[in-house]
């Protein structure tokens, strides 16, 4: 019966320690939820921005494909030399590479959003 009276300081210290661990667990939980929200919001923004970038680059590719046709027509009518045709084709090819790279980044961002949402990632 006298045990709790003798160990009062130890019991009080254990109580405060348990309270501190509860507060720390709540803080860690809140931090985890906030980080998850930030990751998802960033990935959604990234997907949106990459979609807009993809649309712009697709219109660039289309314009450069038209310029290939125009430069070929000019070459056939002897208004341009073949170097201009080659440079136009090179620019169109680089633009297609950029378009493919943007699409890859957009797909990676989609995968990252699934990861941020906890899509079974180890």
Give a topology summary:
Blueprint: H1 3-6, H2 8-76, H3 82-116
Helix pairs in contact: 2-3
Structure description:
The protein is mainly alpha-helical and 122 residues long. Helices cover 89% and strands 0% of the residues. It contains 3 helices and no strands. Helix 2 packs antiparallel against helix 3. The longest helix is centred in the middle third of the chain and has 69 residues. It is rod-shaped and about 110 Å long. The mean pLDDT is 91.
Instruction: Describe the main β-sheet briefly.
Output: none
Instruction: Give the overall shape, derived from the CA principal axes.
Output: rod-shaped
Which value, in Å, is the CA radius of gyration? Answer: 31 Å
Q: What's the helix count?
A: 3
Termini gap: 52 Å
What class, by secondary structure content? Answer: mainly alpha
Features of the shown structure:
single chain; 122 residues; mainly alpha; 89% helix
Describe the structure in brief.
The chain is mainly α and 122 residues long. The protein has helices spanning 3-6, 8-76, 82-116.
